[in-house]
What does this fold into?
Amino acid sequence: MKREHSAPEARKEGLIVHPISEEVLVYDLDRHKAHSLNKTAALVWNRCDGKTSVAELAQCLGDELKAPVDQDVVWLALDQLAKARLLHEHTPMSQKPGLSRRELIKRIGVGGAMALPLITSIIAPTAAQAATQCSSVVCSAGICPTGCICAANGSPCV
Amino acid sequence: MAEPRAKSTGLLIAQILTQSWRDSPPALEISAEDLTRVAPLLLGSGGAALAWWRIRHSELRSSPEALQLQHAYHHFTLESDLHERDIKHVFTLFRAAGVEPLLVKGWASARPYPEPGMRVYGDMDLYVRPDQHEAALRVVKSPECSRYLVDLVYNELSRLDNRSFDELYARSQPLKLDQVVVRIPAPEDHLRIQCLHLLKHGAWRPLWLCDVAAAVENLPADFNWELCLGGDKRQADWVACTIGLAHQLLGADVHETPVAERASRLPRWLVPAVLKQWEKPCAADHHPSELMANTLCNRKGLLEAFRNRWPDPIQATIWMRGPFNELPRLPFQLGYYQIQAARFLTRLPKAIRSRSDGEVSR
It folds into this structure.
């Protein structure tokens, strides 16, 4: 499998980053999307400094997880980070698609799957807004932007 | 043997949220069916992250409902960062206009929670001096402020709270958010404001009671109960009963407070009234979907509109400035209903005139 071997670089600008326990939450201010990175994905992302190669990333990850880590695990993380737009555009990615998560699980076994990188999109809970918030929003075209009730166009929502 | 009766939705919500504001809440024993039943209500009412906090170490943590609750917790965590940025910007805008606001509820209520993502962040409720209200309104309506959800709420709550803005401001706490100083009321004032706000809305949102519980369990060592409760005895009793609700429904520890005795002996109607409200804990259930004026030509709709506007006993007692005692609530409900009806009737001619222009009046 032929791949570029330059060092990937994490995007840090235009993001709000909030670590919680072993995960890292990221909000993309440009795209208004939120992601949750599991421990492995977060470790890879934090080490993407534009200087560390994929091989070195695998080594670092192995040190952190206290187990040998295949480079494909790093490539899987990079693929996901790139899809979530959390790497710089110029970061070279695999020329051929890398192993999928499913293929990797087959290879390393279900036990090792816990250590696989995972980035999930955070979906906003529905109607979790305060009632008082509604009155601050004006209804337009029969719709209240925060999911409140539209009483009449141009009037505060309820 | 008869089938055990299913627990009411209100009781289930209370069970899930019990001590959920603590760093290490007690283990939760709840069935997957019950979680499925109440998860949408927790998601819709802002209590989802607290529910996640309670079930995160239980067997239910990997259920689809738990995943939704976890998403809410993640969402609120990021929202807390965004909300702090917004607060800093809004305070800067207000100061530039010569207005010094106090931030109440929301972010101020979230401070006692162990993590910022445990509470939902909605709008920004600000108190401003009454003589600065117009200037503050101009800031709120300015293009720079238009993307923020700012509510100027002092006038509304001052109808229930007998403290002046100057009094509240003199005791307020300056907090630094990076380089911006944000003022919030003193803990004594804020606890009272939280309680009165909850009662004013009939306690329909469980999160508000969690806020009260979290505040009560995290009071500073020098908390002055006299300052919090003092003055108006009736108002003091409302506050004490609200803390009592947090104790009886959510397990808040009040034993070292002067309201402990009152907290264990609430009027019999109060807890059932709150549990009934929690059957429908989402905002949409507490606002009529149809304007009263729009139902006038529709007899069935009118009856429905009248029924929807029947006040709950808590709200009615508070707005009628009644005592929290064992007497029936009906007189307060009737009184409050009459006031509301009179208010509607005085606005009716204007509403009818303006209907054709698309202007509305409730």
Q: What stands out?
A: The CA atoms of residues 170 and 185 of chain B lie 9 Å apart. The interface with chain A takes residues 40, 43-46, 48, 68, 71-72, 74-78, 80-82, 106, 115, 117, 120, 122-123, 125, 149-151, 153, 201, 205, 282-284, 286-289, 291, 358-360, 362 of chain B (CB under 8 Å).
